[in-house]
Design brief:
globular; 17 strands; 8 helices
């Protein structure tokens, strides 16, 4: 477990499914190498670390899991694309450290259905993929599901049917059409750009001083959030990513929101501040 955030009566645990290593050019897209290597130096193979960060939200006796890492189902393409290292085990191991089993999860929110965010949505049972969290409903935007089951040349290597088709077949998949209040403290909001149907998670507890915003891959690193032009090479709609970030930056700053990103290995949680030039910058927060 990476961190524990207390938000009034709501608790957020940052969990890990390991760290994957990706080509730095893919992570930073059109940003010149000379700029991003100063912030995240690559290894000798030009690979940079990306945390496989998930989150567990506990409120009103309910447990909500946000995103599911890469999972453990055999997949040659995943093995080629994702250099995953797990010195502390998997997402399920992190849950076990909290004395939780898959049966204890009530709801799973998937920000999107890429293989590094939906892997543990299912696991193999007698050779067939079944929902990992048997009591849970799984929430995803309808647009995201439609794009995932009808991939194109650009997206077919990022969506793996075994992660999400069994959810539909078992009747546990809930398809959303836009913003939705999924519990008194938790709502999902469309944040398109990385994919057309991408969503992020907002936590608002009346007893908390500030809200919390789980970005998903709207901003996989904090630097992506504060620098509008910085988008990954994997964003299907990069200009829409920029506009979505432009929309959310002022809200996050005004509400002093705690921002949890999905892949940053150095600043998993931060807040937005204005720098001396009037631009947004990210500052880390102490985690309890």
């Amino acid at each position: 477990m990476e961190a524990h955030l207390s938000l009034g009566n709501t608790h957020v645990y940052l969990l890990s499914d390991g760290v994957s290593y990706w080509d730095g050019g893919g992570t930073f897209g059109l940003v010149g190498r000379a700029k991003w290597v100063k912030l995240l130096p690559p290894d000798e193979h030009n690979l940079v670390p990306q945390a496989l960060r998930c989150a567990l939200i506990e409120a009103n006796g309910k447990r909500i899991l946000v995103d599911c890492g890469v999972g453990d189902k055999p997949n040659d393409l995943i093995a080629t694309q994702y250099d995953v290292r797990r010195p502390n085990g998997t997402l399920l191991d992190d849950l076990a450290r909290l004395d939780l089993a898959p049966e204890d999860i009530d709801l799973v929110i998937l920000t999107h259905l890429h293989g590094d965010h939906s892997g543990w949505a299912t696991r193999l049972e007698n050779g067939r993929p079944v929902p990992t969290f048997p009591r849970a409903r799984y929430l995803v935007q309808r647009t995201e599901f439609e794009d995932a089951i009808h991939p194109n040349e650009r997206t077919r290597n990022t969506y793996f049917a075994d992660n999400f088709v069994p959810l539909f077949e078992h009747g546990v998949l809930v398809l959303l059409d836009g913003e939705a209040q999924v519990s008194p403290q938790v709502r999902v909001v469309p944040t398109p750009g990385h994919t057309a149907g991408h969503q992020s998670v907002v936590i608002e507890d009346n007893a908390a001083e500030q809200p919390c915003f789980l970005t998903g891959d709207l901003a996989p690193y904090m630097i992506h959030l504060v620098r509008l032009p910085w988008v990954t090479a994997y964003d299907v709609l990069p200009m829409l990513t920029i506009e979505t970030k432009r929309h959310w930056q002022p809200w996050l700053h005004q509400h002093r929101a705690l921002v949890v990103n999905s892949h940053d290995t150095t600043m998993p949680v931060g807040c937005l501040e204005r720098n001396e030039k009037g631009l947004f910058s990210a500052v880390p927060i102490a985690q309890r």
